[in-house]
Amino acid sequence: MKLTKKLFIAALAVAGLTFAGCNMNEDKYGIIDFNAPGNRAETNFTNDTGSMQRAWKTFNSNHRLGSCVITLDKSNGNGGNMGFIWGLEDGVEEGTCNFYVATLNYGNQTNGNNFGYYVSYFTGVGKAYLEGSTGNFCDKNGIELGKSGCTATETQIKGSPWASLSSINSTGKVAFVLSWEQNTGYKMALYEDATAPAVGTGTKYVSEFTIAAGLSDTEKQSDKAPDKGMGVYAMSNPGKTLHGTWDFPGFTATSNINEIPE
């Protein structure tokens, strides 16, 4: 296979316990549990705080790409969002970060009685406000995206704000499969099978799409994806229970998501 079109999936990535990126673990309410067996994170959180809550956890690994299988329990209605983070790095301004996120939801105002997803690239997000209860991320000064004076940005790649994924209504399960193509950038496809995406096969729900936002010309010219951080993200709605799992089927025993950076 030519280097101009090479799939770097997690099963083929080099194992390790560190990455060059930005480590962030913001979860004061314990929404995300990294103690599940295998390469799995899970959430089963009832939000009685009276406001929306967000949580982040990154993991120690030099995996740059891979398959993240998200299973979201819809029996609780719109319990919140579950997301897969990659390309995480420090922003230009001190106290900020940049990242990509693919997010799954069931039952919000846009999706109705269906699943939906979005993929976006964020820059200049304030690390101090990653938790918080605002409707969107904030800049380093705590100003929410979309509000006057906010210096953070969002590039919507899929979904405006949400794209329909009603085809998983019966299972609540989808695999976000991230790969790399030299001179193009990231590529992502959504698969129906929980294990097949680790080897790049299975039935796609959504045609593969490219993601060039946030990549320099030098990065795109490389035959490998940038060495940046990965992790998971959750948003929990007040008075609701968010229940689901994140699985990373291609990760190895020596490079697993249970190794949480300090």
* Helicity, as a percent range: under 10%
What is the global morphology? globular
Low-confidence stretches: 1-21, 253-262
Total strand count, please?
A: 13
Outline the structure in words:
It is a single chain. This protein is mainly beta. Helices cover 2% and strands 41% of the residues. The strands form two sheets. Strands 1-3-12-5-6-7-8 form a seven-stranded antiparallel sheet, with no helix packed on it. Strands 2-13-4-9-10-11 form a six-stranded antiparallel sheet. Strand 5 (80-90) and strand 6 form a beta hairpin. The longest helix has 5 residues, at 217-221. Residues 1-21 and 253-262 have low confidence and may be disordered.
What characteristics describe this protein?
262 residues, mainly beta, six-stranded antiparallel β-sheet, 1 helix, 41% strand, globular
